[in-house]
Write a structure and sequence with these properties.
heterodimer; A: mainly alpha; Four Helix Bundle (Hemerythrin (Met), subunit A); 2 domains; B: mainly alpha; about 55% helix; Cyt_c_oxidase-like_su3 (chain A); Cyt_c_oxase_su3_dom (chain A); cytochrome-c oxidase activity (chain A); membrane (chain A); mitochondrion (chain A)
Chain lengths: ~260, ~80
């Protein structure tokens, strides 16, 4: 039986990369079919295949690490670099939308009434639900840190409690935002105010859902004893992502909700 | 280490069986020298899920290319 003379992970051949690419094709062309030909079938197939690929690809990574032991410190270092680069790319993604917001709001055109918020727009009160949402995300940052310390100290019960609280806070934020969206006196088509507001907060909300799901998966893995006090990178990646989502919200709150009202 | 010690304590009630540490069993299953790639190493459920995913994706790709060709063709007015 041959053994490798290096600490990197040479993965087994896998169908997920190519199937994932195909799923992306189906999702994007599905969007075109839905928008232009009023047919949702391709989009549904795309979203379903994307979900199936993600589930199995990440399931395989858990198998390779927790069950097969392939995640050496070298491999973990690479994963850390990867997650940092990914979060950085997401930061640039949001930067673009903040740019758009400031472009329109710092020098409001005559068509908007020369003011920000534009004439006729009733912005949401930043001291109402948005402030509660800020408190919720800040609290969830505390609970996820508590969970991390509990994992490192091998305190299983507290880790589970803290991570459960974090996930619940995440879902509470999403529920409140959904209600805010429903009740808002303005919509996405209400000029550039509506566009910048809903696209920025909308993408943020999507990231909250992604982050909450990642944390939920970590919770299930925590319950199933996958994490050890010294090796729990999946959890750390989820926590980093969650802090990033929190920071983006703080920027959104201060600029769009507060300064922009 | 402490975590492993806690997990090896005897579980008495049947309802607690779902919280028993199954990691060692899984480690044995996935390290079996059977030549299977990791995405199929879990057994029959893996193959079913793989075939469903691949089938859906391949059919969808054919569907997408078909409609791409159809929508590229000019429509003849009556």
């Amino acid at each position: 039986m041959t053994h490798q003379a290096h600490s990197y992970h040479m993965v087994d051949p896998s169908p997920w990369p190519i199937l994932g690419a195909a799923a992306a094709l189906l999702t994007t062309s599905g969007l075109a079919m839905w928008f232009h030909y009023n047919s949702p079938y391709l989009l549904i197939m795309g979203l379903l295949s994307t979900a199936l690929v993600m589930l199995q690809w990440w399931r395989d990574i858990v198998r390779e690490s927790t069950f097969q032991g392939h995640h050496t410190p070298t491999v973990q270092k690479g994963l850390r670099y990867g997650m940092v680069l990914f979060i950085t790319s997401e930061a640039f993604f949001f930067l673009g939308f903040f740019w758009a917001f400031f472009h329109s709001s710092l020098a409001p055109t005559p068509e908007l009434g020369g003011q920000w918020p534009p004439t006729g727009i009733q912005p949401l009160d930043p001291m109402d639900v948005p402030l509660l949402n800020t408190a919720i995300l800040l609290a969830s940052g505390v609970t996820v840190t508590w969970a991390h310390h509990s994992i490192m100290e091998a305190n299983r019960k507290q880790a589970i409690h803290a991570l459960t609280l974090t996930v619940l806070l995440g879902f509470y934020f999403t529920a409140l935002q959904a209600m805010e969206y429903y009740e808002a006196p303005f919509s996405i088509s209400d000029g550039v105010y509506g566009s910048t507001f809903f696209v920025s907060t909308g993408f943020h909300g999507l990231h909250v859902i992604i982050g909450s799901t990642f944390l939920l998966v970590c919770l299930l893995r925590l319950i199933k004893y996958h994490f050890t006090p010294n090796h729990h990178f999946g959890f750390e990646a989820a926590a980093w992502y969650w802090h990033f989502v929190d920071v983006v919200w703080l920027f959104l709150y201060v600029t769009i909700y507060w300064w922009g009202s | 280490q402490a975590l492993r010690q806690i997990s090896q304590r005897t579980i008495s009630t049947a309802s607690r069986r779902q919280f028993a540490n199954r990691v060692p069993e899984n480690q044995k299953l996935f390290q079996e020298d059977n030549g299977l790639p990791v995405h199929l190493k879990g057994g029959a459920k893996d193959s079913l899920l793989y075939r469903t995913t691949a089938g859906l994706t391949v059919c969808g790709t054919i569907y997408a290319f078909y409609y791409l060709l159809v929508s590229s063709m000019p429509k003849k007015p009556n």
